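User: Please predict the structure of the protein below. I'd like the answer in structure-token form so I can feed it into my own downstream comparison script.

Assistant: Understood. Taking the following sequence of 285 residues as input:
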Amino acid sequence: MSSSAGSQPAPKKERVNAFVEKVGSFFPDLRKKLRVAKMTKTQDVYIKDVIMFTSVVFVALTLIFLLIFTTAFISYLWLIILLPLLLLAIFLFFMKRVDVLISSRQRSIDKDLLFAGRQLLIEVRGGIPLYDAMTHLTNDYGEVSKVFKEIIDKTNLGVPLDVAMEDVAEETPSKPFKRLILQVVNSIRSGSDIAVSLETMLDQMSQEQIIEIKAYGQKLNPLGMFYLLFGIIVPSLGITLMVTLLTFTGVSFSWEFLFGALVVITLVQYIFLTMIESSRPRFEV
């Protein structure tokens, strides 16, 4: 009796694991993304955390919507339609956290890559072995230093330098870093001059950054004009004109109107600032 009672929780745990595996099958590249984002969690643990956060937020929002629908006398049919969509949106929102971490890591690598590459080129040209030159890059360059430290650590464990560089590049989200490292790997394996390959790639990266800076400057002109128009001029003059007209017509307006206008203006400001920030070059200018 005691042995059968002790085995009761096992089927439940198996069902949970089967459900988590089923959810994971819809995200076949999640394991690789977790490695690229440098998250220590396994795929199953990550999905379980997402399900837990989704459940908590979903229950809280459901209670809020129930209160709003009850107070406003809105049909619960809309709530039945809304809740499944809300559940899916919350789940996908939390699942995207790994993509946000990957994007953040990519920006951090791209920011300092050119400077680290220049130091690597100078040291290789000065006759310092490639391994020692990479060892000198394991500090002072943020996320780039962490990536080079991974290469050095793999090499210290007995992995050949070119293989270690190739493996680390495979799990790095930065495309410029991958191109730079793979070019060096090709130079090592073909026996060509590493300094020449490095200089070619760094010059190409420098030109790409110059083009990106010019494109960013061109984007700022129309964005700035639309921001001034829809973020400052239209809200200020529009509200002033509306209040004046309502005063002359004798129509009263409530604080709800002003609060709604504040929300709309804040949302417009946030959208424009997000657009400007997202279009900013990934590197330091």
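That's the full token string. Residues 194-249 form the longest helix (56 residues).
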